[in-house]
Design goal:
The protein is α/β, with parallel strands linked by helices. The protein folds into two domains: 22-52, no CATH class; 54-289, NAD(P)-binding Rossmann-like Domain (Rossmann fold). Helix content is 47%, strand content 12%. The chain has ten helices and seven strands. The longest helix is centred in the middle third of the chain and has 29 residues, at 147-175. The N and C termini lie far apart (91 Å).
Length: 300
């Protein structure tokens, strides 16, 4: 006759070398069987949670829109992988948010994608959503955009989106996951002093459509969000009071957007509620693009 603890182990399908509570369980007095059964159930619950929990990777997640997006994924039961190249900010965000992993990488590095994919597969076993949010801005006249400045913007804003998507597509095929690329209103309507930034974001918008066309047959949806003026650390750094007032005058809603407002749209497009939406570029801009030239004086 089997010992009760041994019978429990056998029914769960553990071999001796896989026994999560150790071989000593088979020799434990009967009064400890309940304790060990509880331990086994705990191991199984953890294993089941790991297998069923969805995983989202957000690049540029240390702050701003990326951080707000990670928080929303967490609220909806995902494990969030926070990826950023700013170690201090990344670790601060990681420590503040439960159920997250911190990945210190630079998306502009062509070799990083393969390392990231291998690590996700090893640590989480799946990927359900990829949010390509990492980006930089470097504004200035055309004459001042030398090769190094041009390439620096393109390497992060455009190349990084391509590298990450290419490396993580195999895992997204397995889950029929979603990809969300972040462009900008500057990629939809031109403006002064943004020759590199605006061009990189316009390319991201079209890259989104290329990816959607090719990956749709695998059940992968690819969409793009183009933020308008949003109150972030980056916008605060580059927008003077005069620029802020000009945006308020030109935006029909007469204000900057919030990081959470952007995150809501990003999460929606990654969620099952957007299951028939792919290849779309959604401007989240308070109506800025719709106004065309937009003459504030006509409002008076």
């Amino acid at each position: 006759m089997f010992h009760p603890c041994e019978s429990k182990q056998s029914r769960l399908g553990f071999s001796n070398d896989q026994n999560p509570v150790g071989d000593h369980a088979l020799k434990t007095p009967l009064r400890f069987c309940a304790f060990h059964s509880g331990k086994i159930r705990e191991v199984l619950r953890k294993r089941m949670r790991t297998e069923m929990e969805k995983v989202a990777l957000i690049t540029g997640a240390a702050r701003g829109i990326g951080k707000a997006t990670a928080e929303l994924f967490l609220e909806n039961g995902y494990h969030a992988i926070l990826l950023d190249r700013d170690e201090e900010a990344l670790m601060e965000t990681h420590q503040a948010l439960e159920n997250t992993s911190a990945y210190l990488y630079d998306v502009s590095n062509p070799q990083a994608g393969g390392e990231i994919a291998a690590r996700i597969l090893s640590e989480h076993g799946r990927l359900d959503a990829l949010v390509n949010n990492a980006g930089i801005a470097d504004f200035g006249p055309i004459e001042e955009h030398d090769q190094s400045k041009w390439r620096r913007v393109m390497e992060t804003n455009l190349d990084g989106v391509f590298y990450m998507t290419q490396a993580l597509t195999p895992m997204l095929k397995e889950t029929q996951g979603a990809i969300l690329n972040i462009a900008s209103i500057s990629g939809l309507r031109a403006s002064t002093l943004r020759v590199a930034y605006g061009t990189s974001k316009a390319a991201v918008a079209h890259l989104t459509k290329q990816q959607a066309c090719e990956l749709g047959e695998y059940g992968i949806r690819v969409n793009c969000v183009a933020p308008g003026p949003v109150k972030t650390k980056l916008s605060i750094a580059v927008h003077t009071p005069e620029i802020i007032q000009a945006y308020h005058d030109a935006v029909p809603l007469n204000r900057y957007g919030g990081e959470r407002e952007l995150a809501e749209v990003i999460y929606f497009l990654c969620s099952p509620k957007a299951s028939y939406v792919t290849g779309q570029v959604v401007a989240v801009d308070g109506g800025f693009e719709a106004t065309g030239v937009g003459l504030p004086a006509l409002r008076d």
